[in-house]
Amino acid sequence: MTDDQIVIGTDIGGSHITCMAVDPVLKEVIHEICIRKTVDSQGPAEVILSTWADALRECIVHFPAGRIGGIGFAMPGPFDYPKGLALFSGVKKYDSLYNVNIRDEMRRRLSLPESMPVRFMNDATCFAIGEAWLGKAAACRRTMAITLGTGFGSAFLDNGIPVESGDEVPAYGCVYHLAYGDSIADDYFSSRWFEKAWDSRFNQPSPGVRLMTEQAESIPAVMEIFTDFGERLGSFLAPWLRRFHAGCITIGGNIARSYELFGPAFTAALRRENCISEVHLSTLGEHAAIVGSARLADDVFYSKLPFISNK
Fold it and tell me: Which residues have C-beta within 8 Å of that of residue 6, sequence separation ≥ 6?
């Protein structure tokens, strides 16, 4: 990739695809070029793949031939990231893509040259890479990043490179599957926990985290839910932050929008556990994963990733 080339970063969500152009030399997102399309993740493979290719094509067409230096995908799992192979099965999204090579499909549909990098990484890891590259976490050598939403994503980075093995991190840098309470962490640090907490207090269906946020200041019982969440999250993460010697932690995802409600309890719990990591909210927001995916086109950076360097 040459210094004047642009990379297309792509975020694949459960109901959308978003593509943006990123200038890796200037370290800037080209906000004027943002393509977002709705995707039926339960639809047939041909419809999904066509929608993805159309979105990328609408982004690529803004640049002259040869200007695009690569395409990166922030992709949820299960997925074979080095091979570009979809392994979705029984996860209620993109099941029709099982065993489809997404790299090959995009190359064919977009007539991409074989020399152009088309690369994939877990969406939570891309979020962390983006924040460590262009966010506040860039000032820290060692950092952890989490996403709080329908699931609980995480990644640990050293000098911007994901750390997925060793005594300092859980396997693959993931904390969602670790035992917590009477289940696993994913059940406690996601929107599902808020729904259950609301149900147990009010004996009625939850209105969702966003509406709960609006009610927290006027209804003490709702505020207690956020305080409880923050205390639990801080106590759970503190040992891992200390073990990894993380200089900071970056928080993103939809639930992060309610940080002013659970943040004080979260930071208090960290300090009680003798954790001194700085806490940052995502500065890139929903663009963080796109920025992180765009970084995958850098051959030097990509060669340092765990699934490449460990081969």
Answer: 21, 22, 23, 30, 63, 67, 68, 69
